[in-house]
Structure prediction request, 313 residues.
Amino acid sequence: MQEELFTSGRNIPHIDPSLEIWHWPISVYLFLGGLAAGLLFFMAIITLMEKDKEYPTVVKYASIIPPIALSLGLLALIYDLKHPLYAWQLYMTVRIESPMSWGAWVLLVTTPMSFLWVISYWKEMFPKWNIKFNWFQKLEAFLAKNRKYMAMAFIPLSIVLGIYTGILLSAFNARPLWNNAILGPLFLTSGLSTGAAAIILMAKTAKEKHLFGKIDLVLIIVELGLIIHMLMGMYAGSEVQLEAMQLLVGGEFTLMFFGFVVILGLLVPAVMELTELVGFKVPVAIPAILVLIGGLVFRFVMVEAGQITRYLY
Prediction:
């Protein structure tokens, strides 16, 4: 009997043949980051257009969600870290070529700013909670006076935050499903859509619901186009990309992807929102909830399926 010794790179624990180090907290983190980005973007746009009196839900009541979402997302991220006590080391350097570095610094700026925005509307949102500390009242007055400057900063910050949630995956070239330039715009669009859906759920006037119903419909159409573009790009790719795509089309993630994301999370809400816009009475909460569920499931599918895919060598 002849024995042969060979070395293979296909048996590296937690890395190959499939990646097993990103679990549910990462999916939750990506969803909450995208949701916060969408809300911050609309909040800033409405403020700069001086429509804050017409759309109070966007600039005031919905603004409570981003600081909570970002805080919970960061907690989920820290929980998932192997060595959470070393998270501070991300802020010891700036690497322009690293999506994780971009995300860390954007979150460092955006999260406290989102809390400051809520403070700027404190008296209007919580009239019964009268905080009598002199420093707090001065801070509130200062922030209310300079609200537009914060809105100007939120536009680029929210766009970078929304795109970052997708680029964080697409920069991982070793996984064929993630190695796709369309993920950045796709995750940004999905984040804007979930943000619009959250505003619809919280809206107090028919005018707000109608406007963001139209906005969400447009975003859903764009998102469907980007998903089709992603699938067609994969089908036109190499053998490993075809194998990766089979997880979504005919594989173990087909039901989750097409059933919960494409059909229930995009097509059904689009039809319901279109029906409502042409004059039929539709409970707007249903499509909004479906969009939010679809956005969350989409992150879970992309994170889980992407870790299974790999290049052959």
